[in-house]
Amino acid sequence: MNHLIPLFVAIPLGSAFLISLIKNKCFADSWANLATFSLLCLSVYSLFLTRANGTMVYKMGGWIPPIGISLVLDALSVLLLITVNLIALFATIYSLSYMERYTSKGKFYTLFLLMLGGMNGVIITGDMFNLFVFLEIASVASYALVAFGVEAEELEASFKYMVLSCVASSFVLLGIALLYSYTSSLNMADISRVLQSREEGKIIPFVSVLFLMGFGLKAAIVPFHAWLPDAHPSAPAPISAMLSGVLIKALGIYAILRIFFSVLGISQSFLTVLMVLGTLSMVVGVFLAIGQWDFKRLLAYHSISQIGYVILGISLGTPLGILGGLFHLFNHSVFKSLLFLNSGAVVYATGTRDLRKMGGLRERMPVTGSTCMIASMSISGIPPFNGFWSKLIIIIACIQAGHLGYAFWAVLASLLTLSSFMKVQRYAFFGKKKESSQSIKEVPLSMRIPMIVLSLICIVGGVLLIPALRNNFLGPATDVLLKGTDYARIVMENLR
Asked: How far is Cα 193 from Cα 183, in angstroms, rounded to an integer?
């Protein structure tokens, strides 16, 4: 079954090539959706494979690492793969009607699948340089997708995103080069094994800072967040959902977790730094969001804030904190993607992103209004929606660890989030009807289906905490991080 692992990269990259070759709109629509559906099915199947077989390793070309390249599938990889490919499927379904207003759907799907292939590659690779290569594939495709509308705003946002992302990539590449010079290996498990056999040199803290800056910028953690508020609103709605829902997690959060927990080894001082950065992101993001009237820009700032919750939970270093952080990572992907799809539906129907120019849309767009209300309550941490449970776990974990101050900031940020989304509901959906709203109608069915399904996940997402489900999905991923550098031993045993 190890031979299934490369399909996570082969399917999207091969599909991107095929769509670019066969220039037919109907073929592009159907093939892109087939590719994302097959990737989601493969991700769910890999959940059962890892539960039955443990960590799985694929040797590229039969070459044994550290000489050859390996692909590694463990519980943490599976969690991210399911999250990424779930959102990708709904983004492609949504694009069937939404992208009709743009010039070339074939080019859009080609770039989309390249970005998806890069994200999947980052998640499953067991090699540091290949992580950088896949990261760049996803990043370059995302630059083009942000600028897909080719208006002045989109081009400016894409250029800003590209410049800052290239700076981040330079930090990452320099860190990988220094790590290679110190360990003479690029295989993650082998690097971890070498570092465990040596006393920590001065180069490792320096490399850690480089990786934190590089991947922190990819994850849009404060103070590395400057690119996100421009890039996410400018992109088409399905791309905004992908960028905010999964790209910053796959290229940023996952890379931080894999490298620091599994390869370099985590220290209490580094966890403290992450805790401070997570709290800063949580609070700064929500304060910046409150004053926004641009619907998509408001959502972009909330992405910064919600990533702070994920970082805070995981940086506690306790089993409950890591569980809450990973659960919130999944939940945020669902409700934030839903909110960006809602905003896309509103812009599709009204032609504006300014909340002050909207009003009374709930009557004209009942599905969009209802699903946006569910997503708003979920991101605000209102029970019984999925966001409530993950935030509650993080807050309880803070209290258990004796960090009452961090728990206070988490509660405050949640209250401010609620006030921000009450403004959205008040002005966009429940406000006074505008004279121009008479011609507004609900969006097509292919745009409504993803919103309805994602809203249902928001409602029932709390069931993932039921022991039978938690022990098969979130629990094993938590254990991967708790075991830390045992990753090296587990992978090496699988290679023998």
From this structure: 9
DSSP string, 130-172: HHHHHHHHHHHHHHHHHTTT-SHHHHHHHHHHHHHHHHHHHHH
pTM over 0.70: yes
Q: What one-character DSSP code corresponds to residue 357?
A: G
Interval 400-421: pLDDT, tens: 988 899 999 999 999 999 998 8
Region of 360 on the Ramachandran plot (φ > 0 left; ψ -120 to 50 alpha; else beta) = left
Contact 427, 361 (CB under 8 A): no
Query: Measured between alpha carbons, how far is 304 from 393 in angstroms, rounded to an integer?
Result: 20
Are 253 and 219 contacting, i.e. CB atoms less than 8 angstroms apart?
Answer: yes
Q: Peptide bond before 205: cis, by omega within 30 degrees of 0?
A: no
Q: Using one digit for the tens of pLDDT, what is the confidence trace for 181-234?
A: 988 888 888 888 888 888 777 888 899 999 999 999 988 888 888 888 888 888
Q: Where are the alpha helices (DSSP H) in 428-466?
A: 445-460
Which residues have a Cβ under 8 Å from the Cβ of 75 and sit 6 or more positions away? 50, 476, 477, 479, 480
Are 428 and 343 in contact by the 8 Å Cβ rule? The answer is no
CB 327 within 8 A of CB 378: no
Mean pLDDT of the chain: 88
Q: CA 95, CA 468: separation in Å to the nearest integer?
A: 35
How far is Cα 251 from Cα 260, in angstroms, rounded to an integer?
A: 14
The torsion region of residue 220 among left (phi > 0), alpha (psi -120 to 50) and beta comes to left
